[in-house]
Design goal:
It is built from one helix and ten strands. The protein has 120 residues and is of the alpha+beta class. The strands form two sheets. Strands 3-2-1-5-8 form a five-stranded mixed sheet, with no helix packed on it. Strands 4-10-9-6-7 form a five-stranded mixed sheet, with no helix packed on it.
């Protein structure tokens, strides 16, 4: 009887270790990286690939703003100012993206510094 009891306890401990890990992984946000400046460039990437389409869901956007003459904003299905014009450095935000079109842009240089992606 002792070995059966030990097996049940070990099995319960194994299940307890697996369940929280699975739940945490499922709720983690996908990382996107944005860069603005130092020249007149703006990008948003998932890994090494430019973002063109994303599935609706939770995302962490880490923006590296390399100039105090630019900003990084989102407009469309979501509207958010991530960095301001006088800011230079890195900021990170986590948000839920819903279906629609989103434009990321630098407001002082909107004509030449923007990109668009779809959330499906």
């Amino acid at each position: 009887m002792s070995s059966i009891r030990l097996f049940v306890v070990a099995l319960g401990a194994a299940v307890a270790l697996v369940v929280p890990t699975t739940a945490t992984t499922a709720s983690e946000a996908t990382l996107l990286t944005g860069t603005v400046g130092p020249g007149f460039t703006i990008t948003l990437k998932k890994g090494a690939t430019k973002v063109r389409t994303l599935k609706a869901g939770r995302y962490t956007i880490r923006v590296s703003d390399k100039s105090n003459i630019h900003d990084f904003r989102l407009k469309g299905a979501v509207t958010k100012t991530i960095t301001g014009v006088s800011f230079k450095g890195t900021k990170t935000v986590t948000m839920t993206l819903k279906r629609g079109t989103v434009t990321y842009y630098c407001s002082p240089h909107l004509i030449s510094m923007k990109g668009t992606f779809r959330v499906t």
